[in-house]
Design a protein that fits this description.
- The chain is of the alpha+beta class.
- Helix content is about 45%, strand content about 30%.
- It contains 6 helices and 13 strands.
- The strands form 2 sheets. Strands 1, 3, 6, 8, 9, 10, 11, 12 and 13 form a 9-stranded antiparallel sheet that branches.
- A hairpin with a 4-residue loop joins strand 9 and strand 10.
- Helix 2 runs parallel beside helix 4.
- The chain is elongated.
Length: about 325
C-alpha cells in the first residue's frame, strides 16, 4: 500500500470521528437540553394535638392509630388522684361555708353552735388529711421520685386546709357570739367562694377524660397505658383529613411570575392524573435554606421559595406525604 493511500485513510478516519462527535453533540443539544424541569412537592394536612391541662397517668386509650374519630368521641382517660383529693377538701369547705352562712342568717341557737363546732372539727380533719398528703409527697420529693409541681400542689392544698380551719373556728366563735349584718354578708361571700372553688376543681377533673374537638384520623399516639404525661404534653395527634394542601419548594428562577391566587396543574403519581390547584401562600425559605450559587461564573444567587396551594377539586384518597409533580 502506497504512502498516499495510507494518508487518505487517516484523513477519512479523522473526518469520520469528527462527524460522529458532531452528531452526538447535536443529539445532546436537541434532547438533553430540552428535558422538562420537574418540581416535586407533597400533600400535607392540618394536625391537631390532644393534651391535658394537668399531669396524670394514662389508664385507658379508647382509640388506636388509624382510627377515624368525630367531635365528642372519647380518646383517653387519665387518673389524677391529687385533683380528686382536692375536690374532697373543696367539697367539705363548701359544705362548711354554706352551713356557716345559714347559721349567720338564722341566728345562733344551741344546736347551731354545736353544728358550728362539728363543722370546725370536720375542717380540722380535712387539714389533717391534707397535712399527711403533703408530708408523704414531700418525702417522695426528697427521694427524687416526685416532681416539684405535685409537691407544691399538695402544699397549696395543705395551706388551704389550714385557712379553712381558721375560718371554721371564726365561724364557730361567731355562732357563739351572734352574727352581725356584716358577718352575715361575709358568710355569704365565703359560701359563694367555696362554691366557686368546687366548680374550678370539677372543671379541672373534666381533663381526666380527653374527648376529640375535631374530626379526623388518629395519626400518632405518644404515651402507653400506665405512663405519666405532664402538663401540656401531647397525648396523640389527629390528622384533619378535610384540610389538605400541597407544599412545593421552588427556586425563584422557576416561579415565572407565580403569585397568590394563580392556578396550575400538578400530576399525582398515586392516582395517575392531573389535579388543579390554587396558590394561597408564598414565602422565601430564608438564608439558611436551599440556594443555588451562581456567583462563581459572575452571575447571582438563586433563592428558594415555599409555595402552598389548595386543591380546587378535592377527591377521596389523598394522604399526607403523597407526591405532587409540576413539569416546567
Amino acid at each position: 500500500m502506497s504512502a498516499k493511500t495510507q494518508h487518505n485513510n487517516i484523513l477519512l478516519a479523522v473526518l469520520g470521528l469528527v462527524i460522529v462527535v458532531l452528531v452526538v453533540g447535536l443529539i445532546g443539544f436537541f434532547t438533553i437540553g430540552k428535558t422538562d424541569e420537574i418540581i416535586q412537592g407533597e400533600v400535607e394536612v392540618s394536625e391537631y394535638r390532644v393534651s391535658s391541662k394537668l399531669p396524670g397517668r394514662i389508664v385507658e386509650l379508647r382509640v388506636k392509630e388509624g382510627d377515624y374519630v368525630h367531635i365528642g368521641d372519647t380518646l383517653a382517660i387519665l387518673e389524677m388522684p391529687e385533683v380528686n383529693a382536692q375536690k374532697k377538701v373543696a367539697s367539705a369547705t363548701e359544705g362548711a361555708a354554706e352551713a356557716m352562712s345559714s347559721l349567720a342568717e338564722a341566728g345562733a341557737r344551741k344546736e347551731q353552735i354545736q353544728g358550728a363546732y362539728q363543722l370546725m372539727q370536720q375542717a380540722m380533719a380535712a387539714e389533717e388529711i391534707a397535712q399527711k398528703s403533703y408530708t408523704r409527697l414531700q418525702n417522695l420529693y426528697n427521694e427524687g421520685v416526685m416532681s416539684a409541681q405535685k409537691r407544691d400542689e399538695a402544699l397549696a392544698a395543705y395551706k388551704a386546709a389550714q385557712a379553712q380551719v381558721l375560718g371554721a373556728k371564726s365561724q364557730y366563735e361567731m355562732a357563739k357570739n351572734g352574727a352581725r349584718e356584716q358577718e352575715k354578708a361575709a358568710a355569704r361571700e365565703q359560701a359563694q367562694a367555696a362554691k366557686g372553688a368546687v366548680e374550678v376543681i370539677n372543671s379541672l377533673l373534666h381533663e381526666s377524660v380527653q374527648v376529640s374537638q375535631v374530626e379526623g384520623e388518629v395519626s400518632s399516639i405518644y404515651p402507653k397505658v400506665g405512663e405519666l404525661v405532664g402538663t401540656g404534653s401531647p397525648i396523640m395527634s389527629i390528622s384533619m383529613m378535610s384540610d389538605t394542601w400541597g407544599t412545593f419548594n421552588i427556586r425563584e428562577d422557576q416561579l415565572k411570575g407565580l403569585k397568590i391566587g394563580d392556578t396550575f396543574k400538578a400530576f399525582s403519581p398515586a392516582f395517575g392524573k392531573d389535579v388543579k390547584m390554587k396558590v394561597y401562600y408564598i414565602k422565601d425559605q430564608g438564608s439558611y435554606a436551599v440556594w443555588k450559587a451562581t456567583k462563581s461564573n459572575g452571575q447571582y444567587d438563586l433563592k428558594t421559595f415555599e409555595v402552598k396551594a389548595r386543591f380546587i377539586d378535592k377527591f377521596d384518597g389523598l394522604r399526607p406525604g403523597m407526591s405532587l409533580i409540576i413539569k416546567k
